[in-house]
Amino acid sequence: MKYESASLLIAFIGLTSAAPTPFAAPKNTFSIPKAMLRSVRLAAREVPQEQSHNKFLTGVRAALDLDNPAGIVDPVFGLLGNAAAAEGAGTITNLDCLHQATADQAFTNAKAAGDVVGMTNSLLYAALERNTGSVGQKSVLCTDKAVNAEIQAIQQHQDPASDGAAATNKAIVLELAVQLQAIGADPQDSLLSGTFAPGDVNDNTGAGNTCDTADDAEGCIFTQNLLVEDATADEIAAAVSAGGAGAATGAAAANETAAASDSTDDECAVASAGTTADATDNAGAAAGNNVQTFTGNLGGPPPAVIESSGDRPFSINDVTFVNAGAALQRSCAVQNNACANVVNSGGDGSVADCNAQEQACNAAASA
Q: Is there a contact between 176 and 190 (Cβ–Cβ < 8 Å)?
C-alpha cells in the first residue's frame, strides 16, 4: 500500500457500516466521537487503501468490541503506516505488530463466542495489505508470536509491485485457505484478501491502482472490481487437500518473502527488541532436524527451522508451521529484520545488503 492520503475524519464515518453477508457481524459499538478524540492529530491525514476491504474491518471491529484489553482504537489503524498507526494502537508498543495483535484479539473473542464468521473475518483481515511509503515497497513483518496459531500462520499481503509479490501473495492466500478450512469456513474466501493490480514504481504520487471509499460497506475493491486474485480455485482446493500451502506451491511458497525494506516516513526496517538474539540463539537448536541450510550471517544467522512430528512439524522457536516452505520463508524474514536492526544501529552493511542476503536465503530454501 501507499502513503496515507484521505481524511481520517471522513474515514471514521465509513467505519460504522455493517458487514454484508456472508461476513455479517453483530451491530458494532465503535464510538466515532471517542476515536476522533483519541486521534485528533490524525484529523487531516489521508488513508488511501485501508478501507478497500471494508466488510472485513467491520467484522473485526465487532469481534474486537467484545474484549479489547489493549484499547486498540479501531482495526483501521493496523493497516496504516507506523506513524499513523501509533495514534490508535492503545497499549501496543510494537507498531509492526499492531495489525497482527488486532486480528489475534478479534480471533480470540470470536473463538470464545463460537463465531465462525468472526474468526473468518479476523483471518482475512490478518492477510490484508498494509500501507507503505511508496509503490513497490514491502511492509515490515511482525516477528512477535500470536496467541492463536491460526493467526500466526498468516502474513499480510505485500504491495503487488514489490519484488516477488506474486509468489509471496499466492503463498499467503493458500495458507489462509488452509486455516479457513480448519475453522469450518469456505477456503475459497481466502481469495477475497487479495489486493490490487501492481502500480508503477516510478509514480512519485504513490497512487497505484487503488481505491478507498469510506461509505462503501462492501469495500470498493469488490464493488469496483479491482481485486486481483492471487490463485485459482483449483490451486486453493489442492492446497487444502494437501493440508498446507507449501504442498501446492512447491518452491514458490518460499521463493520470496514479505520482509522489511528501506525505511520511510511511516515504515521502519528496525526489528523489535530481541530479534537479533532470537536469530542467533536459535541457529544452534539441537532438538529435531534443522532444515534451514542457509549460511549467510550478516546481522546474525537465520533462526533454525526444526522438523519434528505432528500436524505442524516445522517450528521456529515456539512458532509452528504446516510446511517447510512457509517456515523457511519466515526464517529468512526474521534474519532480514535482525540484519536491518544491526545496520540501523550502526553495524556493518546496509539495508540493501540485508535484502540481498534475504533473497539468497530464499533461493537456498527453494533449491
A: yes
Per residue, what are the HEC states of 71-108?
Answer: CCCCHHHHHCCHHHHHHHCCCCCCHHHHHHHHHHHHHH
Q: Which is it for strands 289-290 and 319-321: parallel, antiparallel or unpaired?
A: unpaired
Nearest to 365 by CA among 171, 176, 149, 100: 171
**Average pLDDT taken over every residue of the chain:** 77
Closest CA to 82 of 126, 162, 43, 139: 139
Cell of 339: 540484519
Contact 226, 220 (CB under 8 A): yes
How many Cβ atoms are within 10 Å of 13's Cβ, its own excluded? 12
Sign (positive or negative) of CA dihedral 205, 1, 143, 253: negative
Q: Taken in order 271, 358, 168, 108, is the CA torsion positive or negative?
A: negative
Distance CA 203, CA 163 (A): 16
- Grid coordinates representing 205 are 504520487
Query: The C-alpha cell of 165 is what?
Result: 509479490
The predicted model gives 197-202 an average pLDDT of: 87
Which secondary structure element, helix H or strand E, spans residue 294, and what is its range?
A: none
Q: What is the dihedral of CA 201, 141, 16, 222, to 10 degrees?
A: 50
Order of strands across the sheet with 314-316?
Answer: 289-290, 306-307, 314-316, 319-321
Quick one: which of 200, 164, 142 has its CA closest to 2? 200
* Cβ count within 10 A of residue 339: 33
DSSP state letter for 138: P
pLDDT category of residue 97 using cuts at 50, 70 and 90: very high
User: What would the pLDDT profile of 241-260 be if each residue is shown by its tens digit?
Assistant: 886 434 333 323 333 333 33
User: Which residue is listed with cell 499467503?
Assistant: 172
80 and 89 in contact (C-beta within 8 Å)?
Answer: no
**209: CB partners within 8 A, 6+ apart:** 196, 197, 198, 199, 226
Q: Please say whether the dihedral angle defined by the alpha carbons of residues 218, 223, 224 and 230, taken in this order, is positive or negative.
A: positive
Q: Domain map of the chain by residue range?
A: 8-255, 269-367
CA–CA distances in Å: residue 208 to residues 157, 211, 221:
15, 9, 13
